[in-house]
From TrEMBL:
Coiled coil: none annotated. Pfam families: Fasciclin (PF02469). It comes from Tateyamaria omphalii. Residues 1-21 form the signal peptide. This is Nex18 symbiotically induced protein.
Length: 162
């Protein structure tokens, strides 16, 4: 089971990387849309009215959970977050995945903290690959016209939203 999940994750990361290679001309949102593996993230960004922000000048660093990462959340979580009455919570979760500025993997150091747009900091761990909080970076340094995307295998939640 673990091997099958690992292979699926590697295949997803490889597909996402191939699909968005050469995306320097496209912004973060268009790059995510074109990849085809971030449909849930894109739907959430739309529901949270963050499309214009993430299409803006930036630069932004986005830790982008794949569709599989969202699917791993408890049943009904995504559907509940997408409801209009939960927009504030959705915005808090999504902006917890965004760091102002362009942070490439070469800029990272073990146990560094990066303050997110949401206001809380995420911790980067380099001991076992690259991790952001509990999520593993499965594809890094996908450059866009207004920042960079690092693909992660889990949705990270700010305190009070876990």
């Amino acid at each position: 089971m673990f091997r099958k999940t690992l292979l699926a994750t590697v295949a997803t990361a490889a597909f996402a990387t191939a699909a968005i290679a050469g995306s320097m001309k496209k912004d973060i949102v268009d790059t995510a849309v074109d990849a085809g593996t971030f449909e849930t993230l894109v739907a959430a960004v739309q529901a949270a009215d963050l499309v214009d922000t993430l299409k803006g000048d930036g630069p932004f660093t986005v830790f982008a959970p794949t569709d599989e990462a969202f699917a791993a959340l408890p049943e009904g979580t995504v559907e509940t977050l997408l409801l209009p009455e939960n927009k504030d919570q959705l915005v808090a979760i999504l902006t917890y995945h965004v760091v102002p500025g362009k942070v490439m993997s070469t800029d990272l150091s073990d146990d560094m903290e990066a303050t997110t747009v949401q206001g809380e900091a995420v911790t980067i761990d380099l001991d076992n690959g690259v991790m952001v909080e509990q999520a593993t970076v499965v594809s890094a340094d996908i450059e866009t016209s207004n920042g960079v995307i690092h693909v992660i295998d889990q949705v990270i939640l700010p305190e009070g939203n876990s």
